[in-house]
Amino acid sequence: MSLIVLILGGTQEAAELAEKAANLPNIQVKLSFAGRISQSIISENCRIGGFGGVTGLIKYLQSEKIDLIIDATHPFAAKISDNAAIAAEQLRLPRLMLVRPEWEFVMGDQWIEVENIPAAAAILPSLAKRVFLTIGKLEINAFTQVENIWFLMRMIEKPSSDILLPKGLILLNRGPFDQHLEKQLLHQYKIDTIVSKNSGGDATYGKIVAARELGVKVVMVKRPMLPQGEQVEDVEAALAWLKEF
Ligand code: NAP
């Protein structure tokens, strides 16, 4: 008898896991995206869009007869992780979180760690003039009221036109980003400070290395709390968990 695993996605790891898990005997995969960015490749085992909170998620898990959940969402996607934890608990479904390790401070880094995005916006006027904002589009409006700072804002897709943007330039691009090109970018735009989430992983670490080498400050947003539960750090370990069933 085969088991159906719901993979909550939106990360490179989730996509890789979904592909590899689909090759396991006795495992059927459903990969779920929030739908924040346009998906170019949608296969029949994907679904897009919110579930409608915990209640909607529970209904979905029941109607699709999901047996297992792997939460492979981004470490800053705290709401869906909480919802998955509550829903799995209620339905007594096994749940695993795939969470890539955080970046660690190393000698030469000039990090200013803050609790969240509003705290990053609040601290900027005391230390920056030209900022590279690498937090995506979702919370960009937190910086709209910040005065006397020019922003280079990198994101995958433009925010909707009703969102007020801070003064500066939008750069549309999708990682991975090469550290040498990141260095060029910092140099070209005379960036003195980067705002980054502590996302972890290699794909966006180039800017952190480039900042270290150029003496650029990094306002590093700490990760939100994740729900309790079993965690692994990489795709192989998540596959090993799946093979146990
Ligand atoms: P969030 O705050 O945790 O979630 C907000 C709502 O979006 C959830 O309550 C849920 O809606 C829906 N949602 C989130 N992930 C979903 C998924 N994989 N499948 C179906 N619905 C989902 O998440 P977020 O920070 O907005 O991030 C949205 C997505 O972008 C996530 O899938 C995440 O992996 C990806 N992502 C986020 C970041 C980031 O920095 N936050 C960076 C890269 C990628 P309902 O309550 O209606 O179910």
Describe the 3D structure:
By secondary structure, the protein is of the alpha/beta class. The protein has two domains: 3-100 and 226-243, Rossmann fold (3-Layer(aba) Sandwich), CATH 3.40.50; 111-221, Rossmann fold (3-Layer(aba) Sandwich). Helix content is 29%, strand content 22%. The protein contains seven helices and twelve strands. The strands form two sheets. It has a six-stranded parallel beta sheet, sandwiched between helices. A six-stranded parallel beta sheet has the order 6-11-10-7-8-9. Helix 3 links the parallel strand 4 and strand 5. Helix 2 (53-63) packs across helix 3 (78-91). The longest helix is centred in the middle third of the chain and has 14 residues, at 78-91. The protein is elongated, with a radius of gyration of 19 Å. The mean pLDDT is 95. It binds NADP nicotinamide-adenine-dinucleotide phosphate. NADP nicotinamide-adenine-dinucleotide phosphate (NAP) is lined by residues 8-11, 32-34, 36, 50-53, 56-57, 73-74, 76-80, 83, 136, 138, 197. The site of NADP nicotinamide-adenine-dinucleotide phosphate (NAP) has 25 residues, from strand 2, helix 2 and helix 3.
CATH architecture of the largest domain: 3-Layer(aba) Sandwich
Q: In total, how many beta strands? A: 12
Judged by helices, strands and strand pairing, the structural class is: alpha/beta
- How many helix segments? 7
Order of helices and strands: EHEEHEHEEHEEEHEHEEH
